[in-house]
Design brief:
Elements (H helix, E strand, L loop, with lengths): L12 H24 L1 H8 L3 H25 L5 H20 L4 H12 L2 H14 L6 H29 L3 H21 L12 H4 L6 H13 L1 H7 L2 H7 L8 H23 L3 H22 L3 H13 L3 H12 L4 H31 L4 H24 L12
Helix pairs in contact: 1-6, 1-7, 1-8, 2-3, 3-5, 3-6, 3-17, 4-5, 4-6, 4-8, 6-7, 6-17, 7-8, 7-13, 10-16, 10-17, 10-18, 11-17, 11-18, 13-15, 13-16, 14-15, 14-16, 14-18, 16-17, 17-18
Length: 403
C-alpha cells in the first residue's frame, strides 16, 4: 500500500477522512433507516409490511452482488475516481428511490442503491489507511467506520422523524444529498492515485473464493447475523403495534439502540484481540437468549428499552467476523473484506425474509424473536464446524485464528 503520510502538504488527511466517514454515514442511514421506515413505506406503496420488507432484501442483494464484482473488476482503477463514481451511483439510486411510483420500481432502485455499498467501504478503507503512518492505519479505518456507527445513533432516528412528519421519501432524498456532498469532497480533497497496482491483482483476489475457511466464516456470519436483522427490521413495527408507543417516542428507542451498538462495536474490537473464538460463541449465546425473550418483552415499554440496549451491545459480531477473515484470507484481503459486506447483507436479506413468512401467516411481529434465535443458533453451529475444519488443515499460518 502506498503510504501517503509523507505526501505533499496540500493533502489534508482530516478532511479526507471526514469525507469518507460521511459516505459511511449516508450508507448506514439508508441501510438501517429503511427498516425503521417500514410501516410508512408500506402505507405509502399500498402493501403489507411483510411484503415491504422485501425492499430491504433488495438493497441487501445489491450489496451481495456489487461488492465482490466491483472489488475484482475495478482492482486497478484509481481509488479517488472510483469512490466518486460509487457515490454518484449511490446518490442517483437513492434519489430515484425517493420518487419510486410503485413497489416494483422501488425494488429495482433499492437493489441499485446497494450495489456500491461494499466496494465503497473496501476502497475507502484502503484510502483512509494510506493517509497515515503504518502504525495508525487501524485508527484511520475506525474513523471511517465511525460514520456507519453514528448513522445508527443520528441518521436512523432522524429518518424516522422525517417519515413521520413529511414522508418517508424525504429520508431517501436526504441520503442522496449526503452522497452528493461526499462525492464533491472526495473529488476536491482526496489525492490522485494510486491505482490498484501490482498489489491489487484480480486473479490473486479471486483466490478467496477457493479458501474454505473464508467461505465458512462468511456463511456463519450470513446465517448467524441474519437473526439480528430478523428483529431489527420489524423493531419499529413492534414498538408501534405491540408495545403501543407513540410515534414520536420510537426514534428515541432507535437512538438508544444505536448508542448500544456503538459501545458494542468497541467491546467487540477489544474482545477480538483477546479471545476471538470464545467471544464469537459468547456473543451468539447472548443474542439467542435476548431473542427468545422478545415475545415476553414486546408489550412492555421499559422491557423493550432494556431489550434494545442489550441488542445493541450484543451486535458486534461483524467486527469479530472481519477479524477472523483477516487471519484466514491470506493474500486475498480486499475481496475477503468485500465479501464480508456481502455476507452481512445476505444476513440483512435472509433475516427479514424468513421472519416475514411467519408474520404473514399471522404469528405476529414478536415471532421474529424465535426466527432470530433459530438463525443465530445456525450461525453458531456453522462457526463450530469452521473451527473443526481449521484444525484438520495440515499447514497453518503462523497467525492462528484459534483464539
Amino acid at each position: 500500500m502506498t503510504d501517503l503520510a509523507t505526501a505533499p502538504a496540500h493533502i489534508r488527511p482530516g478532511i479526507i477522512q471526514f469525507a469518507l466517514a460521511m459516505g459511511g454515514f449516508a450508507i448506514g442511514t439508508t441501510e438501517f433507516a429503511s427498516m425503521s421506515l417500514l410501516p410508512y413505506l408500506a402505507r405509502g406503496l399500498g402493501i403489507g409490511e411483510a411484503e415491504a420488507s422485501h425492499v430491504i432484501s433488495a438493497y441487501a442483494l445489491g450489496v451481495v452482488v456489487g461488492a465482490p464484482v466491483i472489488a475484482v473488476l475495478a482492482a486497478r482503477f484509481e481509488r479517488r475516481r472510483l469512490l466518486v463514481a460509487l457515490m454518484g451511483l449511490f446518490c442517483v439510486a437513492n434519489l430515484m428511490s425517493a420518487f419510486a411510483p410503485d413497489y416494483g420500481t422501488m425494488l429495482l432502485f433499492r437493489f441499485l442503491s446497494g450495489v456500491p455499498h461494499g466496494a465503497y467501504f473496501g476502497i475507502a478503507a484502503l484510502m483512509a489507511a494510506s493517509l497515515v503512518a503504518p502504525n495508525q492505519r487501524g485508527k484511520a479505518v475506525a474513523r471511517l467506520m465511525l460514520g456507519l456507527t453514528i448513522a445508527t445513533v443520528l441518521g436512523v432516528p432522524m429518518s424516522n422523524v422525517l417519515g413521520q412528519s413529511v414522508g418517508w421519501r424525504w429520508a431517501f432524498a436526504l441520503v442522496a444529498v449526503l452522497a452528493a456532498v461526499t462525492g464533491v469532497l472526495i473529488l476536491t480533497y482526496a489525492p490522485r492515485g494510486p491505482k490498484g497496482g501490482a498489489s491489487s491483482d484480480p486473479l490473486r483476489e479471486l483466490s478467496a473464493l477457493g479458501n474454505r475457511q473464508v467461505l465458512l466464516t462468511l456463511l456463519s456470519g450470513a446465517v448467524g447475523f441474519g437473526g439480528f436483522f430478523a428483529i431489527y427490521t420489524y423493531l419499529a413495527s413492534i414498538l408501534l403495534e405491540v408495545t403501543h408507543l407513540r410515534e414520536d417516542v420510537v426514534p428515541l428507542y432507535l437512538a438508544v439502540m444505536g448508542i448500544g451498538m456503538t459501545f458494542g462495536t468497541l467491546i467487540a474490537g477489544w474482545a477480538a484481540d483477546r479471545a476471538l473464538n470464545l467471544s464469537v460463541f459468547l456473543l451468539f449465546a447472548i443474542n439467542i437468549g435476548l431473542m427468545l425473550s422478545l415475545p415476553a418483552l414486546a408489550g412492555q415499554a421499559w422491557g423493550m428499552l432494556g431489550f434494545v440496549v442489550a441488542m445493541g451491545l450484543a451486535g458486534g459480531f461483524p467486527i469479530l467476523g472481519q477479524t477472523r477473515l483477516m487471519l484466514v484470507a491470506g493474500e486475498a484481503q480486499s475481496l475477503a473484506a468485500s465479501l464480508h459486506h456481502s455476507a452481512f447483507n445476505v444476513a440483512n436479506a435472509l433475516g427479514p425474509f424468513v421472519a416475514s413468512l411467519f408474520i404473514a401467516r399471522g404469528y405476529g411481529f414478536p415471532s421474529a424473536g424465535y426466527v432470530g434465535a433459530a438463525l443465530t443458533l445456525g450461525g453458531a453451529i456453522i462457526y463450530a464446524i469452521t473451527l473443526m475444519d481449521y484444525r484438520r488443515i495440515p499447514a497453518r499460518s503462523a497467525r492462528r485464528p484459534e483464539r
